[in-house]
Amino acid sequence: MKPLHIIVAASLALSSCCGAGPHLPEAPDYRTSDPAVDSMLQAIRNEWGTSELNSIMVVKDGRKMLEYYDCCYGPDFLNICWSASKTFTATAVGFAVQDGLLEVNGKLVDYLNPEQLPDQVSDTLAGLTLYDLLRMSSGLRTDPMGKVSSLEMKTPTKTVLDAGFENLPGDKYRYNSLNTYLLSVAVSNVTGMSLEDYLDGKLFKPLGIRKHHWDKSAEGYNTGGWGLYLPTESLAKMGLFMLNRGVWNGKRLLNDEWFDEATTPRIYQYHGKGYNEERIASLRGNDFNMGYGYQVWMNSAGGYRLDGAHGQFVMVLPEYNAVIVLTGNVRETGPEMKAMWKYLLPLVCD
Predict the structure, then answer these.
(1) What is the pTM of this model?
(2) What is the DSSP string of 214-246?
(3) Rounded to whole angstroms, how far apart are CA atoms 138 and 155?
């Protein structure tokens, strides 16, 4: 039996032309199979015991060189992005900053409606900035992602802020999907439209991304930190947009300075945990400890990535002018990433 998210995604998929809209151009050696893919599939299924790898796309110098789909998937399939959604939300913040509607160092309380705030706003909450949310250092106590997804929590913004803080903003890295949800709320409040609609005009339509879906909370906001569904090629387009630092088809959509800020380490995963230098040194070189930007992860092999649960990756590799996309339903993403570095990275190194 397929997992629930597969069934949901399939029901969202449409059966017309490719869900990504206009296709990316194909390289002269474009192919839909490769010995490297066969080796990677064998490794993740047998050696590391993971499960499904649904699609792979490798783009080099702006052209698709490899496009693979498992038998149950294809170009039209709307993949659930899980936390890869977060980078799209951060990019919406970038557009809103460019439009003069938000400031990275602006206070969250200034972008919320009165009914979304606790009855008494603490000094800590008053000092919480979008920067703290973007780099996962808000200090917020709770992360009720499941209750938001199930619509059980009717007023997520106020409820999460009412729960208070476990530490001061900026003191510690702690991954929390409600940080991104609050960014979605801020974007919607200042633009007067949903996060998805705002990105549709700013990003999706310019990139030719015609098919997309983003879940909403009970209070009507796109979930931000999860819940976005996109075809594989659309994820590749996002990677290329970021690789080209906001330029698409020769036209600048988002200012260059945003990428200077967003795609460099702003905090390290061990920040605030009190580790000694020996412990920190042992963590370096691990893909999950290389640093975190604005809702993006740094890679051990260079560049950065969009990273979602169960193996949703968009690897942006400026050194090789390349993007590698994987979607799947794997049990362990670390082994999947190691297999990707071993078998797919060499395809773009020439």
Answers:
(1) 0.93
(2) E-B-TTS-B-SSS-EEE-HHHHHHHHHHHHTTT
(3) 19
